[in-house]
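Run folding on both entries below.
>entry_1
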Amino acid sequence: MVSFVATPIGNLGDISLRALETLKKADIICCEDTRTSKILLSHFNITGKTLLSYHKFNEHKSAEKILNLAQEGKEICVISDAGTPGISDPGGILVKLLAENNYDYTVVPGACALISGLVLSGFDSRNFYFGGFLPEKNSGKEALISQIITLKSTLIFYVSPHNLKQDIEFLFNALGDRKACLIKEITKLHETKTFFNLSSLPEVDGRGEFVLIVAGSKGEDFSKMSILEHVKFYINLGFGKNDAIKKVAKERNLAKNKVYTEVLNL
C-alpha cells in the first residue's frame, strides 16, 4: 500500500492520529526534503524508518522506484515538506503511475494551505480555481491568465515572498482592480489576513509563503459588445493589442484578420 499523508503546514498539532499511525507502520517514507522530514518525524518519535528522497527534480525516476517497492509488498508513505502531497508538491506523477498499474494506494487527508486560505478569506467558496504558483516567465503567466480571466470562480494562488510584488502587479494588470485577500503564516501564532484591492499593494512582512485569494470575474457579456469594444476590454486589462485580437478571434470563432480589420485604427 502507498499512502499519501498530509503533514502540518505550520502548527504541528494539526497532524492527525491516522497520519501518525500510518507513518509509524511504514517501511519506507518518501520525503520532499529528508532533512525537513527528519525534524517532523523526530518530534513525533517516529524513528528507524528508511527515508527515500522524492522531489520535483527526481520525481519521474523515484516514482518508478516506489512502484517497484510497492510491488514487493512494502508499506510506503509519501509526504511533502508541509501540506498535502500532490498539491503544488510532488505526488501527482506517482498517483498516475499507481492508478495505471492498478496498485493499491490511498490518501490520509489533513492540512492544505489553499483550502485554509479560502476559508479564512470569506470569499465565495462554492466554486474556485487553484492556480498554484504563477509561472516565472511572463509568457507563462499570460498563457495561464488568458484561460481564467473571465471565470466567475474565486481564484487561489500560492505566492513566494520574492515574487509577491510582481505577482500582485501582474494580476492587477491582467484582471483589473479586484478584491483580494493575502494570508500568511496559516495555523501559526502570527497568522495574518490582509484584505485589499489588487491596485494597492499591501504592506506586509515579506518573509514566509503566502496564499493569495482573488475575487472572480463579475462576468462580461461579450455578445453585447462590438468587436472593437471586445478588443478594448482586453487591452484595458493589460493585454497587448495583438494578444487581445487573438483572444477575441478565438472567443468569437472568427478569423484573426477579420478582427484585425475592425480595429485598424485602435
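>entry_2
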Amino acid sequence: MKSIIKIVNVLEKFSDTGVKGKCVQKFFSGLLKLIHPRAKMIENNLKLVYPESNYKWRKNLRSEIYYNLSWTLTEILALQKNPAQALEWVKHVENLNYVDELLSKKHGVIFLTGHIGNWELLGAWYAQYAKSHGHELHIIHQEIHDKDIWHYVNDSRIKYGIKSLPKEISVLSLARLLKNGAHIAILNDISGYADMIAPFLGHECTNTPGPAILSMLSGAPILPVCIYRNKPFEHEIKVLEPLKIPDKNLKYEDRVKKMISEWNEAYAKMILARPELWFWLHNRWKNKK
C-alpha cells in the first residue's frame, strides 16, 4: 500500500503538538467515522464483556475508541520528528520505583503490556528511559502483512531506540538474552490459536504461554505495565508489582496457568479502568464468535 505510506509521510511532515496536529487528528477522526473499521467486532466484544450494556452506550464507547485511535496515530506521526518527546509527553509514572529497581540490576526483565492507550509511545518512553540507565529495550514483533506499513512501523521503532526480535526466535535464545540482562517487551493481549485456555475479562480464550515460560526458564521477572492518555500528548504510565515466578513444587502446566491468570487479572483491571483506550477491534475471543 505505497499510496497509504505516501499519505502518511505527508501527514508526518505536517503533524506536531499544536494546531497542525489537531488538523491531522481531525483527518484521522473523520476517516475512522467514515469507514468505522471492525465496528461489528467492537460491538460483539463489548456485548460480551458488558452484557448489561445497551446499544447507545456501546455506540458511544465505540466513538470514544475511534477518537483515541485518531490521537494515537497523530501522536505517532508527531513523535517521528523527535522521539525524545516521549519523555516529555509522559507526565507521571505510577510505581516508577519498580522500574528503577529492575533497571539497577544486571538481570533481564519481561516488560509485559498490551494494546491500550498509545502503546507505541510506551515503548518509545521505556526505550529511552532504560537507555539512560544503561539498558536496551527489545520487542518481539510479528510482521504486518502489508510490507510498506510494516517497514514504516519498524523504522519508527528503530528511531525510538527499540531493538526488534522476530516472533520466530527460539525460546532458548530469548532466555539467554534475558539472562544476559536484556529487557524484552511483549504485547500479550492478542489471541493465540493453539495456546492455553484461561479467562480474560470474564470469558475464556486462548492465551500465549510464552512470557510465563520465558520467566521460568530465565528467572526474569514479569513487569505488567500500561499507558493511559489523559489528554492529547499528555500520558501517564501505570506499573504493577512484578509477577512472582510460581513455586517449583507445582506442576509445570499449573505454574504457567497461574502466571497467565495473574497477568490477565492485572491487565483486565487496567482495561476496565479506561475501556475507551483498549483495542477492541481485535478478535480476542475467537472461541466465542
